[in-house]
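Researcher: I'm preparing a figure for a lab meeting and need a structural model of a single chain. I don't have an experimental structure, so a prediction will have to do for now. The sequence is pasted below. Please return the structure as tokens so I can convert it later.
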Amino acid sequence: MNQTIILLPSITFFFLMLSNSSLSLDTIPVNQNFLDGETIVSPNAKFELGFFSPGSSKYRYLGIWYKNTIPHTVAWVANRETPLTDSSGMVNLDSQGIMSLFNSGGAIIWSSNSSTSGINVNPVAQLLDTGNLVIKNESKTNKNILIWQSFDYPGDTYLPGMKLGKNFVTGREMYMTSWRSVDDPSPGEYTIRYSMVKGNYQQVYIRKSSVTETRFGPYNGITFAGQPSYKATPVYIFDAHMIANENEMYFKLTFMSNSLMLRLILTPGGKYEIWHLDMHNQEWTQDFSYPSDNCDSYGLCGPYGICNAISFSNCGCFKGFERNYKQELTPYNNWSSGCRRTKSLDCSPKEGFLKLSSMKLPDTQNAVFHTNVSLQGCEMACKSNCSCTAFANPNMTAGGVGCLLWFGDLIDMRVYQLNGQDLYVRLAASELLANSSTVVNDGNRGVHSRFSRERRVVITISLSTSAGLFVILATCTWIKRTSRADVEQEAVKVLEKDHKCSRRKGSIELPVFSLSTISRATNKFSIDNKLGEGGFGPVYKGVLEGQEIAVKRLSKASKQGLDEFKNEVICIAKLQHRNLVKLLGYCIQGEETMLVYEYMPNKSLDWFIFDDLRKSLLNWPQRFNIIHGIARGLLYLHQDSRHRVVHRDLKAGNILLDHDMNPKISDFGLARMFEGHESEANTKKVVGTLGYISPEYAANGLFSVKSDIFSYGVLVLEIVSGKKNRGFVHEDDDDINLLGHAWRLYKEGKSLDLIDTSLGDSWSTYEVLRSIHIGLLCVQPRVEDRPSTAGVVSMLAGEGSLPSPKKPAFFFKGSEIDSVSIYPSSINGVTLSEIDAR
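Model: Understood. Here is the structure written out token by token.
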């Protein structure tokens, strides 16, 4: 074999990558030194082996990376724990097939520790197109015998073809370990480990040190049940295999494509992510990130507790169980004690099982698995063992059999919207009967053909009573309908009286709900159903005719809130758009005044982006989709609806998120309509939220669609940065707000420094820079310098070049509003403020 090594000057990894000038063959021959500055390239130039310095680090590492990708992506590091302090590192492969890394002093700082005792070897090291660095024997007698491979020593990245698991013969365990930081590849705090104990059913844990943070699994025959939301991109398909036998247990993924590459990584922050690389443009796309919500936290709801991501408190107990330690003086959302049975088990023959569907099955550490047992046989096995608490068939493959039996407490359960599994939980006989909808047969064989006199009397009395009840019921129904009509008429009169929108012709086309209906829907306004409390009163979750709803209950102490209530019902009732929250109806009865909306399970935008823990749950593609969605909603309000509507309180707290994280603009209590050719209006009372109010509105009470555009620009910069405009603090710019900080970075050509660090490297440079640019254009001091709503939408779509922004309004903290007197008007004094112009 002809072998050539091209020697290059000792230059940095990044220059090598950018210059694309380092070329070499795909093997390392015996006893020929491999130096810093040289690289080995896989046969089809997919991977490269060499020395590099990660991020801002000055240390040098021997590693394998994807060739010519943006950003540069490292797949494997040899000397994670012992970095080189300079660029004098040297690699040597000796005649026994041992690869060693030497520092400038000649000391070995890393070695493959290959063992070839008793074998006549002619070793060669080769980098394969799979990203696997192998040392194999090229001697004629033992050709192609594998001596060592990097795939047996994974780092933070899993590449297709690797095994993750344990060899029971050698005792070697293969698992993923995160980097300590983006600049430090040394082993971090997080690991992904497979359940590698003989007899245990396969599942996966992400642990921080020794503490379990989250759990995948169990394995359902196709994938791990802890990631049901993940679907492979249609352009590629891979096969996942779980192998378990007496000698080893491991997970292996195979993937073949000429145009795409796949990697699974564990980030320094403990996130498990799946990415694919399009080899045509050499760009990475994120397909999956886990954990994705609170319910992915291990054991969040305690023993027998069940987690539901779309409920406010997340945790609950299923039928036959109640919350443990109800009187315990702990925060309401602390469910560490879990749930307990309302009736204890006594191993009675009448005990049975409650079927729970769409479940993530409990942790299988205290479970036993039987391979060739049907579901019916599994039930019999559990029922015959008094210690068995639940059973399930974990195999979702066609015709799959298998039986999991749990003994002891059930931990780490949750409900999925899709792709969950069935779990059968043991209940006491009395609980099973109480929770059953089946009519129990009393065993009577029939009735006699002749009626006794006593029976005739009983039947006559029953018929008479039934007739009387029918009359009473009919009368009540008539009264109820009449009363409901009166309630509706009274409601409309109240709403239209002395209100500026009453000049509109026609009646309000919204349902009027009775107080009793809303009360039943919210379980009598139970504290368990309370979603939160805003300036006008509390908001409750409910279920009405099978649909989840959110009920805003106007506080009796809020006089100003009645005006906003009238405005929302009359002026906004007919607005229908996918990016606006839908108003379903209202209730006016006695002293109660309520609005009924569609329920948004993922709360509001501010709940995510302004929280240090939750902000990482919103990746860049989701944030960019939210930026787009808000703009489309505004375009409908400003241009496409029957009346031009100015929201006047656009902010992160008024952007709600649906099941798929799509944004919906909410809270139209302060909105105003324009008719005909009206485009702006003036008011003596300025209302809104500090940090989002435009300068012309704050100073002169003048508002228009461009006032909403200003608020939108603030929102865009907040979404990109994950920082609030109001209260923004930066160590280098402590005298300016977020708008000023963004402007300075823009002028210095450092706009990318604004991006939220929790996003990692999942963002698109083009999209981020364009979003920041558009945000700055929207917060211009002069109304005429801000783009139109249609212009914003087209800019986001990438159409046309962008004009240069000028210095934004409210550049310094408080500079433009020092002359404005501010008086809080909302109950909480934060979310809504009045500004009286002077």
